[in-house]
Specification:
Layout: E1 2-7, E2 12-19, E3 22-30, H1 35-49, E4 57-63, H2 69-86, E5 89-93, E6 106-113, E7 116-123, E8 126-135, H3 136-145, E9 150-153, H4 167-172
């Protein structure tokens, strides 16, 4: 069986297929403010080009935020609808965790607007700093104190170049701690509403 991998929390549209933790196909491109138009079509496209139907899926893995308010809702709503309709498992992952480099400590950032960034730090499977919102000055200070860490994500607002990351591969590496027991209780994560 296959797992459908979805994330639309930021500027990229990410749709993938995995089998036993290995990505077998992916669709990934910039689709800022067009995810709602494109995601369902791309789910159909990836299944067709792999000669699969939705009945070949046994789980959906989705990035639940933080990120773009509308983008996060799109991915989560589509994932919940598919999981509920097919009666399959759904796994939820932090969208910031999808930016990490599993080989190195990684500072993960998305632009939260108004001079702020969604921010988290990961090392392998460990979370060093939980998902939060920081001012860009605080993020730059943290980066300056951890020069040996990779910095991944939307870094243009920080005046930095991002290291490479693989959202779809990180979606494929889910575990049972990320299983959502009740699909109706899965909600997007909007850190902006909580402040810093």
């Amino acid at each position: 069986m296959y797992q459908l991998l979805l994330d639309s929390s930021n500027i990229y549209l990410s749709v993938g297929l995995a089998r036993d933790g290995k990505v077998v196909d992916k669709i990934y491109y910039e689709a800022w403010q067009r995810q709602s138009e494109m995601m369902v079509t791309e789910v159909d496209n990836i299944l067709k080009r792999n000669s699969l139907t939705k009945n070949d899926l046994d789980a959906v893995v989705v990035g639940i935020g933080p990120g773009s308010y509308t983008g996060v809702r799109i991915g989560v709503t589509i994932a919940k609808t598919i999981a509920y309709a097919l009666k399959i498992k759904i796994y939820a992952k932090s969208s910031l965790s999808l930016l990490k480099d599993v080989q190195n400590p990684t500072i993960c950032v998305f632009n939260a607007r108004s001079g702020r960034s969604y921010f988290a730090v990961y090392e392998g499977k460990k979370t060093l700093v939980k998902d939060c919102v920081k001012t860009n000055e605080e993020v730059l200070a943290y980066i300056n104190e951890h020069k040996d860490y990779k910095v991944c994500g939307d870094t243009y607002q920080l005046g930095l170049e991002s290291s490479k990351f693989d959202i779809i591969q990180n979606l494929a590496e889910f575990d049972e701690s990320e299983l959502v027991k009740n699909v109706f209780e899965l909600n997007p994560v909007y850190l902006k509403d909580l402040g810093k």
